[in-house]
Give the backbone structure.
Amino acid sequence: MPWGKVPTVWGIFYAEWEGEEIVGLRFPSDQHPLESVESPVIWRLAAELNEYFCGERGNFTVPFRLGGPPFFRKVWAELLRIPYGETVTYGELARRVGRKEAARAVGRALAENPIPIIIPCHRVVGKRGLGGFGPGLVWKEKLLSLEARYKEKFFPR
């Protein structure tokens, strides 16, 4: 599968795709060693990420595909239901997927999320703090801060 550079106002991300669907996204801190290829789906992803980072987009429409075990896919599908600017705990997410005692398994599914930001695992926090985030807590804080700043724009009260 090809990888491409995704230039954004927050740095160069890297995306993997098959056909017209995004299947992987890496942060600038996770530079990809493979040769970069250009594609219309990468250009669309770059445009949507830039709109998101600039507070002009609350959700993504770029097509994507997820593999992985059924439980992981169920967790990832539930992540898409967490509104922009909101957070839930690992325990709450476990309850929402019907496995209230499986907060650690939910955390494992989040760690394996191949398309962070688009599948917003940054919106899941621990009951005593931020919890983890594969690309690093600095990125999680930055994403949560961005969404807190523009929350009213996308979900006015």
